[in-house]
Task: inverse folding
């Protein structure tokens, strides 16, 4: 597992810390002809060997480096197929991690993967999944009658409220699992402060009540999921 962690660390350093924006832009413009594509790949190989600090593991470093080259090249040529540029980015990162995982545990890949799944805390996984989109849909159903009475704010970011709710519920669940209930109070207070000026300027009682009800339901669902997990 230590080898896997070292290779992931090397990947993070090479892809994010030591890759200037001008390299990224040059690769996007010139693709496989970009000199920075090859510099980037060689940098990764150097980082792999440096962090592993074991010449006997050179085959793993070479294999991961070659795979990195092909994955990055595929991303450069497939970027145009996606309207949302975050999609190829995340696919690219997942493929890199999977390659590292496969190279490190290739001798017992199936057994190790099976062991990982067997050791997963499925109760926690279920709680995490619940407080994301399922909870958002439940809230939408509960608040549907009220939302029709609220004027839409066209200045708001699309789906911003939904994502804020998902993030806050994840935080609440984490704090409950860690037994830090007092931090949940701080989270509610912080959200109230951010919302106060906005609601004060609008002077809209219906909107204030709607947001208050939504916040309480959101926190309530997260607390319920947390309590069910720790019980």
Result:
């Amino acid at each position: 597992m230590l080898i896997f962690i070292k290779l992931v660390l090397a990947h993070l350093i090479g892809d994010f810390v030591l890759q200037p924006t001008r390299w990224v832009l040059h690769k996007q413009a010139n693709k496989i002809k970009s000199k920075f594509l090859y510099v980037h790949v060689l940098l990764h190989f150097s980082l792999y060997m440096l962090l592993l600090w074991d010449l006997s593991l050179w085959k793993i470093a070479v294999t991961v480096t070659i795979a990195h080259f092909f994955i990055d090249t595929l991303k450069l040529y497939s970027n145009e197929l996606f309207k949302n540029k975050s999609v190829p980015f995340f696919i690219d990162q997942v493929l890199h991690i999977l390659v590292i995982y496969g190279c490190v545990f290739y001798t017992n890949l199936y057994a190790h993967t099976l062991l990982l799944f067997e050791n997963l805390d499925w109760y926690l996984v279920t709680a995490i999944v619940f407080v994301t989109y399922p909870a958002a849909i439940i809230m939408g159903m509960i608040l549907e009658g009220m939302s029709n009475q609220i004027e839409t704010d066209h200045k708001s970011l699309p789906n911003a409220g939904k994502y804020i709710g998902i993030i806050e519920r994840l935080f609440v669940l984490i704090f409950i699992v860690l037994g830090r209930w007092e931090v949940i109070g701080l989270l509610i207070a912080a959200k109230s402060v951010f919302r106060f000026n906005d609601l004060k300027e609008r002077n809209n009682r219906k909107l204030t009540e709607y947001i208050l009800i939504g916040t309480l339901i959101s926190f309530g669902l997260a607390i319920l999921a947390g309590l069910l997990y720790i019980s």
